[in-house]
Amino acid sequence: MLLPSCVPYLQVRSHSIYWILGIGLIVRIAFMMFDPVLEIDFYRYLWDGGVINAGYSPYKWSPDQVLSGEAPIELQNLASSAPAVVESINYPHLTTIYPPVAEAVFALSSWIKPWDLTVWRLIILAFELVTVGLLSCILRHINRSSVWIILYWWNPIVIFEFSNAAHMDAILLPFLIAALYFARKSRRPYASTICLAIGTAIKLWHVL
Questions:
Q1: pLDDT tens column, 1-11
Q2: pLDDT interval class at 90 (50, 70, 90)
Q3: 157: how many CB neighbours lie within 10 A of its CB?
Q4: What does pTM read for this prediction?
Q5: 144-150 own/partner pairs: CB under 8 Å, 24+ apart
Q6: Mean pLDDT in the chain?
Q7: Contact indicator for 133, 173 with CB cutoff of 8 Å
Q8: How far apart are CA 130 and CA 132, in angstroms?
């Protein structure tokens, strides 16, 4: 378990931040090379993106309805093009539960390359890099060393869930961190509120 006590040691090393970022990136890329362990939520992300790019709403037709022939023929053909995806979705009797901004990111992944887990993982990595940049801004704002990023960037749970399991929570982190940053930096809450609103349109727990 990584402990904060390592941070003072790293602070006195001029190139520590490059080692921190580089090692974290290498570990993430390594985890991307393996099939997801334990989680299969990514099948829903890939399917929703494909449905949107086919011109249909993932809120209207469940995977079970598509497989049973109740949905339009275009969606049935879509399912036929990727049977391993649609047949592996959790809770296939339900339409999607994800809010619209999350669905837009799923659609982006599908638009780049349909049914491709690697593309989806690279999108997650891009959002993580934005998160790291925003964390660095917060650390500078509170006069802390940027090496404290290690507590996020080397966190084994974060690496596993995002780089291996390909969990979509990574796409909401930049908006949550930005909301905290703007709330602390400025007495005007508008930017913070906008970021929280976008985060809520990715996953609803931001409402809390």
A1: 445 566 665 65
A2: very high
A3: 7
A4: 0.90
A5: 145/7, 145/10, 145/11, 146/17, 147/7, 147/10, 147/11, 147/16, 147/17, 147/20, 148/7, 149/17, 149/20, 149/21, 150/2, 150/6, 150/7, 150/10, 150/20, 150/24
A6: 91
A7: no
A8: 5
Instruction: Quote the pLDDT of residue 8.
Output: 62
Got the DSSP string for 152-191?
HHT-HHHHIIIIIS--GGGGTHHHHHHHHHHHHH-S--HH
